[in-house]
Write a structure and sequence with these properties.
The protein has 238 residues and is mainly α. It has one domain. The protein contains 13 helices and no strands. α3 crosses α8, α5 runs parallel beside α9 and α9 crosses α11. The two termini are 40 Å apart.
């Protein structure tokens, strides 16, 4: 018997749940869990162990890869890293919303850590590590190429933060809640935008001091969009 046939047989035997009873059960569990005192540090500590190993492998690879590049190859490596920053960003959001892909969101609503708390904790962990990696890369490339760390960091942060902002905005929509894979085409879109800006004469006419300010503004906007998304996770069942 094929997997598809087994799935159909199990679905027939299981039947459809009583949605009113399921709704009442989830609301009851949410009400009981609100009375439990769960600190932010505990949420982060619990969720750190649930982030899959490949995420840490990707972060470690991005962090140590420049060490194995020769001085002459570092400019090319930096360009490649700037291009992959959107995917570096989206992989974190994808991991934080993993439960949606496996249709486990409702189960998370009945646990001690709510869906809101789970998303918040995972994004805090992943986002903090990502910013730390970018900071280290900025220093490493700066020392190897001879460009100031702020310029290098700005080049990495602009596509990274823009991807996060767009992904958070889409994640709050019905389409985003039903299609977790949207992060991948968003990353491709940001890469296309970056290439269009870099290869245009418009970028050359802008004062170089504007780019760090733009990166800072995008970081602030990213934080704002993140908290809006956390609130959406809180009220998505209501």
């Amino acid at each position: 018997m094929k997997d598809k046939d087994i799935k159909n047989v199990l679905s027939e035997y299981a039947g459809s749940p009583d949605y009113l009873k399921k709704d009442a059960f989830i609301r009851k569990m949410q009400k009981e869990s609100r009375n439990a005192d769960v600190s932010v540090f505990r949420m982060i500590a619990v969720q750190a162990g649930h982030i899959r190993a490949y995420i840490w492998f990707v972060f470690a690879f991005v962090l140590i890869r420049p060490i194995f590049s020769s001085a002459s190859a570092l400019p090319t490596t930096l360009e490649v890293f700037t291009l992959i920053m959107p995917f570096f960003s989206s992989i974190g959001i994808f991991e934080a919303m993993r439960s949606r892909m496996h249709n486990m969101s409702e189960l998370e609503m009945t646990t001690l850590l709510s869906k809101q708390g789970t998303f918040f904790a995972r994004m805090i962990i992943i986002g903090s590590v990502q910013f730390a990696v970018i900071a280290v890369l900025s220093v490493v490339f700066s020392m190897g190429i001879g460009i100031d760390a702020i310029s290098v960091g700005t080049g990495l942060l602009l596509p990274f933060t823009l991807t996060n902002i767009l992904c958070f905005m889409i994640a709050r929509t019905q389409f985003g809640r039903e299609n977790v894979w949207f992060c991948i085409p968003v990353s491709g879109l940001v890469i296309a935008i970056r290439e269009a800006v870099v290869n245009s004469s418009f970028a050359e006419r802008i004062d170089c001091r504007v780019w760090p300010l733009l990166a800072l503004a995008l970081i602030v906007l990213q934080i704002s969009e993140f908290y809006k998304t956390v609130k959406t996770e809180r009220f998505s069942w209501n």
